[in-house]
Amino acid sequence: DAKSRGRSGYQFHNAEQSARARERVRLDGDLRRAIERNELELHYQPKVRVSDGGVVGAEALLRWRRGGGALVPPDRFIPVAEDTGLIVPIGEWVLRTACETAVAWNAHQPPGAAALKIAVNLSPRQFWSPHFVGMVRAVLHDSGCRPEWIELEMTESLLIDSRGQVAAILAELRQLGFTLAIDDFGTGYSALGYLTRFPITTLKIDRSFVNEVATQPARAGIVRAVVGMGHSLGLELVAEGVEDADQAAALRQMGCHLAQGWLYGRPVPRAEFERLQAAVLGPSVRGGNVAGEAR
Ligand code: C2E
Ligand code: MG
Ligand code: MG
Ligand code: MG
């Protein structure tokens, strides 16, 4: 009858919920130890010019080698870290590591060569942590990284936060010299007013639009409109998730500046990125390790 079904349904739900809660606690505990155990890794995915495929930098993407075993993708642990606040120290580790990489990659670029830029993802909890801008300044100072070598990515949800402080923090970051990108553009609330209110420099067009830019006229129309809007506002446009040459051709025809995606390269550990991109990295990186160069 309804009563016993209701009760067993409730109990099942309950058991499932507490199993999930236990797994979260375990995940949280393991994650707490991940930094000190050196289990976090940054992988780098190339960003290229759509016009000629030249590499202009990379996006840094976090991975967790849990217990030294398999890699855990960010979607599986960042939401938990965001809930518990662990994203604050983890995010600092990410920024510090990305800055150190940017210093190595740019240290010996030939004069006149454009700097290689690394894009770093920010989470809302991290952005709103009490000493965020102070932390950022300290990381720049410690690493010797120039802010021009780093792009900070955030999602639209962060920008439409009702706290009035958003504008002040973004202005401070932009004044320091970072460029500021909207990630997954087109999937949020698209309250476009923020594009002129805040010192945004870059739009990253979400993969769900780019996916079908060569096959779905309606999606292509959206991408064309976003690119057109970006051009009028003087924003840099990046297409995410470019997987084939037809998509690249459509984006090129529309005037999208930059792209990233499997067509150009998957996210890989730093050493592998350096091997794959040896031709565009400075001699300190190109020749293998710095110790080798010193001899
Ligand atoms: P995102 O910042 O939008 O990153 C792009 C995601 O698309 C990455 O997934 C990347 O591996 C994937 N991708 C790139 N090219 C292609 C493609 O051609 N096809 C397909 N199907 N996928 C592609 P990933 O590395 O699993 O990261 C997922 C999300 O996790 C990121 O989305 C970002 O929101 C978050 N994330 C990653 N690293 C960090 C971090 O250090 N801090 C924070 N707060 N979030 C991070
Ligand atoms: Mg991103
Ligand atoms: Mg994205
Ligand atoms: Mg995303």
TrEMBL record:
Residues 24-281 form the EAL domain. It comes from the Bacteria. This is Uncharacterized protein. It comes from Sphaerotilus microaerophilus.
